[in-house]
Fold these 2 entries.
Entry 1:
Amino acid sequence: MVVPDSLLLTLITFVPIVGLLVILCIPSRAAAAIRWTSAGFTGIVFVLTCLMLGRYFALGGPSSGGMFYFVVKADWISTYHIQYYMGADGLSVSLIFLTGLLSFLACFAAFGIQKGVKGFHAMYQLLVCGMMGVFCAKDLFLFYVFWELMLLPMYFLIGVWGGPRREYAAIKFFIYTLVGSVLMLLAMLALYFQYRHTGRPFDIDFLIEQQPFRTALGIQQLLFWAFFICFAIKIPMFPFHTWLPDAHVEAPTAISVILAGVLLKMGGYGIFRINLPMFMDTTTGTTLGVSTLYIIAVFGLINIIYGAFCAMAQTDFKKLVAYSSVSHMGYVLLGIAAMNRAAVNGAVFQMFNHGLSSAMLFLLVGVIYDRAHHREIARFGGLGAHMPRYFALAIIGFFSSLGLPGLNGFISEVMVFLGAFTADERILPYARVITLMASVGVVLTAGYILWCMQRVYLGELKPEYKAFPDANAIEIFTLAPLAVLCIVLGIFPNLALRVFDGTMVSLIHQLYPVASGF
Amino acid sequence: MTVSWPTIEWTWAPLVLLALTAVGIVMADLFMRAPRPALWMQLGLLGLLAAGTAVVLKIPDGVSAFNQAVRYDGLGRLGVLVILAGGCLIVLISHRPVRRDELPAAEYFALLLLVVLGLATLSISFELMAIFLSVEMVSVGVYILAGLRRGDTRGSEAAMKYFVLAAFSAGFLVLGFAFLYGGAEGSTLLGRIALAVHRPSTPFTVGCVLAGFALALTGFAFKLTLVPFHLYAADVFDGAPTPVAAVLAALSKAAGLIALIHLLSPLRIVSNETMQSALTQDFTGLLWIFAALSIVVGNAVALVQRRIKRMLAYSTIAHSGYLLIGVLVFLDNTVRMAEVETAILVYLIAYVLMNVGAFGVAAALGPAGEGEIEHYAGLARRSPALALAMTVALLSLTGIPATAGFVGKLTLFARAVEAGHIALVVLAVLGSAVSAYYYLRIVVYMYMRESSTETVGADTDAAPLELGHKIGLILSTAATVLFGVFPQTLLFLLKIL
């Protein structure tokens, strides 16, 4: 293609910055022009991510066993050996694609925003840049910078354009994430002083090769958990999840979509990219005498069950969807903990699927909220028959989230369960017990989703909703691609699995020689 | 016939230039019919720039003068430049408050220059008397400047409080110096004190040195607003004219820290066997407590402040705690001296820039903007540029990446981790995370709240912002971002200057 491979990731990350500058040059009163410019730039980014996906296949990425493509490397802050080092393997490629897709679609969902259009879309472009950078970075410091960079626009997007309790939600989100990144920064400093003399202290490849602090496992465990807590806050893992319902509920629809669809994935991505390969001895070993993976699995289990119960108790439509994210991300943790091919692939696929389905759910909630201006589940009813096009899309979104066979969510959940059930007991003690307990989550999920659908879409149509129009063109345009992907990936899951399977298999192969040592 | 030109003693030149400018402004004012604040501002700026140019071009690293009493060592020389540059920025953001509060302009700028002169001398003094005189010069100047708003009760309170406490802490300082003089067997040069520390002759000298350092440290703790000697800070900052508060917050901390490092330099460990190392350990413990208390108390109390300058006062207390970590690293010999000095300078530069930014915006907004935080509601609508400058300064104070504050914290804390002060660094970064709450609260007000009718009315100063004030804010904001995104430029500047 016309774009050189080494330039691709840089373009994907920094085209939004160009977009930001262009938007800043447009006068504020030309709101429509700003919206379309913003959509245009996210569109360019999306096209670039599609291009990248195509190149990835063309270069033989799926069968390469976790190689990094599109690598670009240059000095950034040479005094501290900090590099501008980017690259993408199967895991990154799939999440970059997801980010490109969701940021393009969510941009249209933000067309309804009337207040401060210029500021909103400028911040939005910065957010896209930060998210892309996190998935592209191969230098730990660069990763950290993008991680923080994304925090700021998110803070403003929630805080300025959010709901009634937006200030509280924004600052809570900011401080939770900041505490996590501070822990990451401390761990990075420790790594820096350990490897400064080599001249590559932030190079993720190099650190993975070195396996930091192999001879001082106490320190390695500290570093592992510093990184892990930082990522667990983002996932969000119980007990660090309390920022999520506030942030998701207060954020405008488009931002909820990005939060649920992309930001939560960063937590899982970080664990895969940094925790598991860099600290193998801790990953497959113990912390304070307890198997590390077992701890992760137990928290995953809590997430699944507790999140589902919380979702069931909600009276606010959006909050229900928010808690369903907590529950669904629990599967990712469980899959990570089981550490075999099926489970780990399932975990990544679950991240991807959750990106699709939760984005759909937030968009669906947004459609209703725009019309009704409230989100109380109990006050709805009978909307399904009244808004047939909308209802058709809603069914796909909710059933994908529920894990109905034939849709994508089913595949990833089954893979996680299969993997976890057959996990090596030496690596994950009580794997079967945990899996059996987690499977209760499936029933609970079906419970809260069906009950919610019943209350909102079925039954008698209330008179005050008679005037509601069906989904309009833009709403269908944002929802339909996601719905199509949910169905396609439900029937041909290999389309997605092929992308990251090689990467995951090589990760497990790296970990297993370590694991069999005890 | 040959004319022998007098040779210029360049080491004096910057100091003399500042003094002459200050005196020149006051003298020239006598011949003016109307107050000329803009002219005095430009003259002051000229004096500062000339002094800075003299340092950069004519004074090489390590030169000493006045029989060793003054030495332009690496830290001190660059410290002087930081103070002069900061002085320029503060002169720039002074024009508006001077005009609005109808302060006597000539006196104001002359005193400001003299305070900067005192601070510059303080950071290159290597002799007890010189240190003491510089400290007093600053204190007297600030005392007058703080109370310059005649009839203003807060201002008078600030001046009185600062005067009493400065006198009180000067007592500690001078008593400590007396002991050190005894310990060094009749010398006030820091070099001789170092000898006394390394080879104490009698138990009496050991006692003298110990008491001397302890008392002097207490004196400096007042100047650096370290907890528990911080209580005056909030009142003084709140009452003094805002640019004066900025001098106290940014420049006086910078100079005080450099002087403290010079003063304690005899304690820097050279080998682990001498009795000096035992002495150093005592002081390391003491400094550790000061740092930890300042970080915890500063951040905690800042959370509940309702007035902007009081909040910034507690924030500087927390930042003093962070800076003290730099002193601790300096005393430890595990990290190379040049690296510690670079880290401290980077932090100080960031610190000066972001404080000038924050105080500069407050000064631009007038009495309401210098008061309750509520006034900042909806500022982003009313004046987006000021809101942006404030946001950058606050983010930098928090230590968010891509700002100078982050680079400063990172380099300083990295050295501290290297020297093994892990617990303190953990405390400091957690403190920074907490600080996000009170810094961002102002951002919340500026961007997320609508301005109420009274706040709009309180923007009494409808006149467009003075050019100088704008330049000052643009410079500090741009530098904060530039040094944050490309830290290499800052390191390069430190190398070539």
Entry 2:
Amino acid sequence: MSGSEASPQLVAEGGGDTTEILDIRGISVHLGGSVEKLVVLPIPMASLIIALDGSSSRIAALHPQAAQSAREGLMVRMVPEAAGIRSDVVIGAQFNPNVETLLSLRPGAVIQWSEPEDSILSMENAGLRVIALQNNPESEARNQQNMRIVATLLGREDRLEQIIALHDRRAAMLEEAFGSLAPGSRPKAIYVRADNGTLRVAGGSTYQNFWISLAGGRNPATEDGLAGLTPVSAEQILRWDPDFIFLSAFDDMLPASLFTDPVLSQTSAARNRRVYKMPHGGYRWDPASHESHLTWSWAAQLMHPQRSSINLREDVRHSYRLFYNYELTDQDFALVLQTTANATSQGYAAFQSIR
Amino acid sequence: MRNRPQTASTRLLGLVVIAIILVSAFLAALAVGRVSVDLRDVILGLLSTGSESDAAAIVRYARIPRALASLLVGACLGMAGAVLQGLFRNPLAGPQTLGLLGGAGFGGAFAILLGFGAVGVAGMAFLAGLVAIAAVIGVARLAGEFSVLMIVLAGLLVSALAGAGTTLVQFIADPETQLPQLVYWLMGSFSAVRIEEGMALLPLVVACGVILWGYGLRLDVMASGDEDAQAIGLNVARDRIVLLIVVTALCAGAVAVAGVIGWVGLVVPHAVRFMLGPNHRVLIPGSALLGGAFLCLVDMTARSATVAELPVSAITALVGAPLFLMLLVVHRRRSLVGA
């Protein structure tokens, strides 16, 4: 898979003099040499920077949600110094930058989502250099575009190539295995996020839809014309009758609650105990990130255990060694793969074996 | 709004007809959904106590809680609107126009931000609703005259302040976990309602309904003006406070269960007044019954019409606005004929 889809040409000149980055808006941002101090507002990107740089030393500040994710997942265990990064750089809890705090940090650059535009302009008007990325990439090509911009900014294109190679190899493998599967041979799979009882399902134009398809499934929500994360009723989920349900790592809903829900327990997914809580490692595995190849492998192995020859544990072990220079323990595996939450889910024992 | 003269028997008959509409709406809500369920399972779902079929379980656990909750929330909002319109002698008064829903909505949103459960959300919605209505009265009195115009202006002011507070709550809400829930809740939804939450409204509706019905005759007099009420010995100030507390409790209960739902409290009392006249002892139960039927059908549409769940407030506005316009036009024609 290539990340060249509509990709702006990236220019990295430097050697300590000047660096020029073309961000997702197509705007050329001139930086005074290599950037040693970054503020990172898009939530998954702090984890990517740690993976590219091998440390968190260049991250001066990150989004509070990224700090929370680091604490809840494995990041703080893998990179303990990440726990000490300040996160008081947004006003409120969204992506509105606290420009005064940012100015006091004197960052070499601020990484920000490209929308809303106002949240970039306020920083640029204050003289900060802002590198914009595409919000919530809905495909791997877009994901790689964002990652390339960040890698160029860091001067870590070599490390990115290793990550891209992992992604491309795994994508090609899955494409070969499942790309030609007829819709009738693909299990129906949906991704669900629960916000205090309100169920939202991923439709078209979401990364979750992309990896469900790549991993050999078909998303009935997309087939019914839904786009984005859209609220639906439990009855609608029952009407789709999915074979697999993937539960978001962003909320507290667990497979056990679906198995006992009077309506959702009637779905084929629940009857066959094919409901799974998404893993959470260096970052949550639901959205696009540098760990996404692991998401695809995980989903493919669950949906097609007979056709998939992937050794997920080995995959995760190798990737985390590469990204974070960290050797996973069995306890770490359990935390990342949410083995307790998924203990009674079909086929999950395959992920729980020690070696 | 002037209405046709009604006899006691026609008013009673009208209430019976509205009650039949309510029962029909409730049964329709049990029968209609995204999954096809036959009549036998609808009945089984309604009657059985646990060993029902899958289809009956859908009726029992997915449809009945929502149908009951929407029915009771509609009753709350319908009664609240009927009382406010009489109390303020203002046909435009309603829980929304007087800032009550906005205030309660802000309280509930703030409680969600703080991570409170259902009881906390209801409590905060009640307190904020009380503060909002007190502010409306205070501002209207501050201006020197307790006129209809001043009440509406004060309602606008309080609504704007509550809206600003709610915007601030959204601004600082967690973008991944709290914000989507807040936004959806503020547009009104029964998607997450549980049977016990819905049924918690029943004693509130009954108690408030009985109190308001008891005040029906006084409301009739108060609707004619404070001087008339005081002339026959009513303690207008005290009665007004009691009624406002009861109305606030109804709105807070409704907001706590389903979020902010507009138009019901404005349109439904007008429709009942149009059909059965301005007598509050008829208007209040009539508004409760028709409000319940209306919102029950609205929620049925919200969860059944499309693949996605539709926001309830969007449907009440789509239906309520033309209905309100139609009532105005018919009223105008009648006035011209009677002139």
